[in-house]
Amino acid sequence: MLAVKQVRFDYDRKPLFDAVSFEVTAGERAVLFGLNGSGKTTLFRLVTGELTPQAGKIECLGEVGLVRQTIESTDMTVLEWTMRSDPERYALYEDVSSGDEMRVMRSYERALALDVYNLEQEATRALTRLGLEEHLFRNINELSGGEKTRAQLSTLTMKRVDLVLLDEPTNHLDLESIDWLTKWLNQFKGTVLIISHDRQLMDDVATTILELSGGLVTRYPGNYTAYKHQKEEERVRDERAHARYENRKAELLEMIAQYKGWHLKAKATASVRSPGAQKGAANLAIKMKAREQKLRQLEDNRPQKPKEEKSISVRFAADELEAKTWLTCEDVTFGYDNPFYEPFSFSMNKGERISITGPNGSGKTTLLNVLIGERAPHSGVIKRHPRLKIGYFSQTLERLPETGTLLEALLANSEIGETEARTLLAHFLFRRDEVHRPITEASMGEKCRIAFLILYFSDAHLLALDEPTNYLDVATREQIEAALSVYPGGLLLISHDRYFHRLTSRTIELGEHIVIRENDDTGKSVDVEQMVRTMDELTKDELKFFDEAGNLLPFDETSEMNRIE
Question: A GO molecular-function term, please (predicted)?
Answer without folding.
Answer: ATP binding
